[in-house]
From TrEMBL:
Gene Ontology, cellular component aspect: cytoplasm
Catalytic activity: tRNA(His) + L-histidine + ATP = L-histidyl-tRNA(His) + AMP + diphosphate + H(+)
Aminoacyl-tRNA synthetase in keyword set: yes
BP term (GO), one: histidyl-tRNA aminoacylation
Keyword Nucleotide-binding included in the entry's annotation: yes
Domain Class II Histidinyl-tRNA synthetase (HisRS)-like catalytic core per the UniProt entry, residue ranges: 15-169
Keywords for this protein: Aminoacyl-tRNA synthetase, ATP-binding, Ligase, Nucleotide-binding, Protein biosynthesis
EC number, as in UniProt: 6.1.1.21
Record domain Anticodon-binding: where: 347-435
Organism the protein comes from: candidate division Kazan bacterium GW2011_GWA1_44_22
A Pfam family: tRNA-synt_His
Cited InterPro entries: aa-tRNA-synth_II/BPL/LPL (IPR045864), Anticodon-bd (IPR004154), Anticodon-bd_dom_sf (IPR036621), HisRS-like_core (IPR041715), HisRS/HisZ (IPR004516), HisRS_anticodon (IPR033656)
Protein name in UniProt: histidine--tRNA ligase
Domain of life: Bacteria
Length: 441
């Protein structure tokens, strides 16, 4: 007896998603606002290759010896290709590969692509926007990036937000901090638990992140990075906060905020100085504001070590990543009215019969090339079905092109609201349509 083979599933793996047609109006709305703001702030778009060498992400992770285990990769044609967990390493790779260091500094780049963020149980896909400034170490760059993030979220009009911000200082400062943090976590190993100690082998920042979820009281007694800042690091942070105060950025200093593996932006070892999360504020209850929502919409900071990890060349950089899907979901949940993408069609071309159907495609092209917004459907055969589609588009005029009209070289123009119609020779239809559209707005 032949054994039954298990049916193959063609569905996407858990954690992945498609951008389906019914949601495209939301994505178009979001991108239009974002593109306008990025142009105002002089950022240039770069579109990245769909995969990278796995070695890039191993390099970008710095001293994280566990990085290779988290990379989703596959060998193909002698190369080890990998999905991205963040876009910052890819932007830095492109900066060096395309010799952008020869350009005037700073170089301001943005890109958008799906990323696969590793998780404890399964990977999670995000469609992210990444914005980076490379070649300038001043706090003014951090401030500009934070201002830009604020303007983007404000333009969506989907809730108040707060910027949680912290500093881990320069390389000297973070080295001193990591030393005392490791000592603290080892000293409290029994109380902290096995998960924290296992995470400590990966990175102390990850260990502290887990400790905060399992033992907030002990995590609250952990050393803070601000206690180990060099003088120059303190000055950098002080000047940045002055920028934010002047610009009325809604921020809070959160000394527990650290760069982590699962943040979707940079590796912990690449991050220097400032780290920030934008979070939407939770809903108000009885007039009292609750704490911000935990999931950040924007994660970012300064990554002055990233260029050195990837190419061996020291180059200052800062940037952030935005989860575009979170914005789209909030727009849908809050039932925000989204304007129609593109110009609203004025005319619907309907056809009936084989001869008319064959000629209607060229007629559609003539109308479209004349600059008249037009829609049509070759898949529906009945006039009634096509006129129902015209009504859904909200057009004012329908062109009815049947067997009789095809033989006579004419087309019937009907105003849908009044039902008034007239027959027009094909050679005059463009001029007549322009007159009708002009007279009816």
């Amino acid at each position: 007896m032949a054994s039954k083979k298990k049916a193959l599933s063609t569905a996407l793996p858990d954690g992945l998603f498609d951008l389906i047609p019914e949601d495209q109006s939301y994505w178009h709305f979001v991108w239009k606002k974002i593109n306008n703001l990025l142009a105002d702030y002089s950022f240039q778009r770069i579109d990245l290759a769909p995969a990278e060498s796995a070695d890039l992400f191993v390099r970008a992770a710095g001293n994280d010896n566990d990085a290779a285990k988290r990379i989703i990769s596959a060998r193909s044609h002698g190369q080890n290709l990998a999905f991205r967990a963040d876009l910052s390493a890819s932007l830095m790779r492109a900066y060096f590969q395309h010799n952008m260091q020869a350009l005037s500094s700073p170089v301001k780049l943005f890109t958008s692509a799906p990323v696969i963020i590793p998780g404890d149980h399964k990977p999670k896909m995000q469609w992210r926007l990444a914005v980076h400034t490379i070649g300038d170490q001043t706090e003014a760059v951090d401030a500009e990036l934070l201002f830009l993030g604020c303007r983007i979220l404000e333009s969506m009009n989907i809730g108040q937000f707060t910027v949680r911000i912290n500093t881990i200082g320069d390389t000297q400062s973070r080295t001193a901090y990591i030393k005392v943090l490791k000592e603290f976590l080892r000293h409290h190993a029994r109380t902290a638990g096995a998960r924290v100690q296992a995470a400590l082998k990966i990175h102390p920042f990850r260990a502290l992140e887990i400790l905060a979820t399992e033992n907030s009281e002990l995590a609250g007694r952990a050393p803070q990075a601000v206690e180990h800042l060099s003088d120059s690091s303190r000055l950098h942070f002080k000047r940045l906060l002055e920028f934010l105060d002047e610009g009325h950025v809604p921020y809070i200093i959160d000394h527990t905020l650290l760069p982590t593996i699962h943040s979707g932006f940079n590796s912990p070892d690449a991050t220097t100085h400032t780290v920030w999360h934008f979070v939407y504020d939770a809903e108000q209850t009885d007039g009292a504001q609750t704490s911000p929502e935990s999931a950040p919409i924007i994660t970012g900071g300064r990554s002055d070590r990233l260029g050195e990890f990837i190419s061996g060349t020291k180059i200052p950089s800062a940037g952030w990543g935005l989860d575009l899907g979170m914005i789209v979901e909030r727009l849908k949940t809050m039932q925000v009215h989204i304007p129609e993408a593109g110009a609203r069609p004025k005319v619907f071309l309907s056809q009936l019969g084989d001869a008319a159907k064959k000629r209607s495609l060229m007629l559609f092209e003539e109308i479209r090339k004349a600059g008249i917004e037009v829609r049509y459907s070759l898949s529906k055969d009945t006039i009634k079905g096509q006129l129902r589609m015209a009504a859904r588009f909200g057009v004012r005029f329908a062109l009815i092109f049947g067997q009789k009209e095809a033989l006579e070289g004419t087309v019937m123009l009907r105003e849908l609201e009044s039902g008034i119609q007239e027959t027009i020779p094909l050679e005059k239809i463009i001029d007549e349509l322009k007159k009708f559209c002009a007279s009816h707005g």
